[in-house]
Amino acid sequence: MFLIYPQGNFIESSTDAPFFQIGETKYGKPILVRAYDPYLSFEETIKLMLLSFDSTLKANLSVGLPLDFQIYENNTFIQGPSGRFESGDQYLADVSSGWSHALKNAFKAMPNLTLEKR
Question: What pLDDT is attached to residue 33?
């Protein structure tokens, strides 16, 4: 997968990084790095993409909706499912709040540092 910019330079995905995210990558990329699996379904991949972008949306005020996606079957230029997530989208809101809740629960489940032993 390549993204070719109008100036002629490009970025590409590879076996080591089978995805790329344009724009602000410092917020959402860690989620992709930790959760991506090449065997994810399209639906799971879109959910992961939304989690990645949700983190970017929360951390950077200059990034905003809408979010668009377009799926192409491997090795073809045949357009598959596409869509747009805009403000007020219920699925996006559910994923965002579910992710926030899950992160808070995971954080609380982690052991606290015992300062006396340091």
Answer: 86
Number of compact structural domains in the chain: 1
- 71 φ, ψ (degrees, to nearest 5): -105, 135
- Class of residue 3 by CB neighbours under 10 A (exposed 0-12, middle 13-18, buried 19+): exposed
Give the span between the Cα atoms of 49 and 21, in whole angstroms.
9
pLDDT tens digits, one per residue of 45-75 = 999 999 998 998 898 887 789 998 888 888 8
Task: For residue 50, give its domain range.
Answer: 2-107
Return the C-alpha torsion angle 33, 74, 76, 45, nearest 10.
Answer: -50
Check residue 19 and give its pLDDT: 60
For residue 17, being part of any structural domain is answered with: yes
State the sign of the Cα–Cα–Cα–Cα dihedral 59, 87, 45, 13.
Answer: negative
What phi and psi, each to the nearest 5 degrees, are found at residue 72? -120, 140
